[in-house]
Design goal:
Blueprint lengths: L2 E5 L3 H13 L3 E5 L5 H8 L3 E4 L8 H10 L8 E2 L1
Parallel strand pairs: 1-2, 1-3, 3-4
Length: 80
Amino acid sequence: MKKILVVDDNKDIIWVVETILKRYGFSVMTTLKGEDVLKKVQSFHPQLVLLDVFLSGIDGIEICNKLKSIPETKSIPVIM
């Protein structure tokens, strides 16, 4: 089963995206906090990250740069 990590600070967006992706058979993990992304990626091992650019705290661009700088996560596609 394909795994997707959804990162957004809006609970409504998280709910809609998660509902649609699960309906199509994806395994979905979500987080509202950018600070949790690296931990979630390391534990969940997603094949794709859907990442909001404008997050409170760490923004999506900084998170994407961190993911791409780590050898274990640099090949994971990120859609912002």
